Amino acid sequence: MIHLAGITAGHAAPLHTEEAAAIQAEAVFDALEPRIAEQGGKLTDLCKITMQITDRAYRQAVYSVMGRRLMGVRPVSTGLIIKTLEDPAALFQLDAFAVPGGPHRRIRPYRSTSMPYGLEKQAFEAEFCMAVVAGRRVFLRGQTGLTLTGGFSTLGDAGGQARIAIANVEALLADAGATLADAVHATIYVTDRAHITPVMAALMPRLSAHPIPHSLFVVKGLAAPEILMEIDLHAVLRDAG
C-alpha cells in the first residue's frame, strides 16, 4: 500500500484567496501522480483521499480542481476544514492511499452533483464512490449523519448523526464482504469538543464488540456546517481459509 501524507503546493505565495487555493490545488495534483508512480502505482490505483482545507471559502475552488483531475478514478474521500497547516502559506493539503495492482472494486459510485452534503448539493463536479476494495484492504468514504441515499434528519444532533454514520459503515462493510470484526482502525472527527461525549456514546457500543485503535480529532469544520461528526474506518478482509 502507498501512503502519501501531507502533500502541499510547496513554497506557495502567501495569498489567502480562492484563486490562490485553486493554484495550490493544481500543484498538489500535479505532484500526486508522479509520487504514486515512484512507488510502483498508477493514478487509477488511488483508493482514498483526505482533503484538508484551511477555510470553507476555498472548498469550491479546491474541489473543482480535484474533480477535474481525478475524473474517472472515483476514490473514497473525507473532507476537513482545519485551522491551519504547518506551512502558514498553504491553504490545502492532501493525504492519499493507493494500492498498486488495480483495477479495484469501487462500490456505490456517485457524482457530487447528485448527492447532498448536509442540506445542500455541491456545486462542483466530481466522481466518488462509497467504498473501495483493493485486494484485502477496504477503504470507506468518511461517514456522517447523511444516510447512504443522502437523507439528513439529525440537524443539531451529534449523537444522532453518529448513529447513522456507524450504521452506514456497517452497511458499506457488508457490501465489501466485511464486518466490523474486520476493522483495523477508525478516525473520528467532531466539530466541537461538546460533541465528543454524544458521538462516542453512539459509536462505542458498536465498535467495542471488536476493539480497534481509534483516533479522535476536533476540527474546524466538515463538508457542510450542519455536519457535526465524521468517522473514517479502514478494514482488512480475513483470509478465505
What does this protein look like?
By secondary structure, this protein is of the alpha+beta class. It has one domain: RutC-like (60s Ribosomal Protein L30, Chain: A), CATH 3.30.1330.40. It is 26% helix and 28% strand. It has a six-stranded mixed β-sheet, with helices on one face. A four-stranded mixed β-sheet has the order 1-4-2-3, covered by helices on one side. Strands 6-9 form a two-stranded antiparallel sheet. Helix 1 packs parallel to helix 2 and helix 3 runs parallel beside helix 4. The chain starts with a strand and ends in a 5-residue tail after the last strand.
Descriptive labels:
single chain; about 240 residues; alpha+beta; 60s Ribosomal Protein L30, Chain: A; 6-stranded mixed beta sheet; 4-stranded mixed beta sheet
Provide the β-strand percentage band.
Answer: 25-35%
For the record, give the distance between the C-alpha atoms at the N and C termini, rounded to a whole number.
23 Å
**Tally of DSSP β-strands:** 14
Largest sheet: 6 strands, mixed
Give me the strand/helix succession.
Answer: EHEHEEEEEEEEEHEHEE
Our Rg estimate from Cα atoms comes to 17 Å
- How many domains make up the coordinates? 1
Q: Which term fits the overall shape?
A: globular
CATH fold node name: 60s Ribosomal Protein L30, Chain: A
Strand order of the largest sheet: 5-10-11-14-12-13
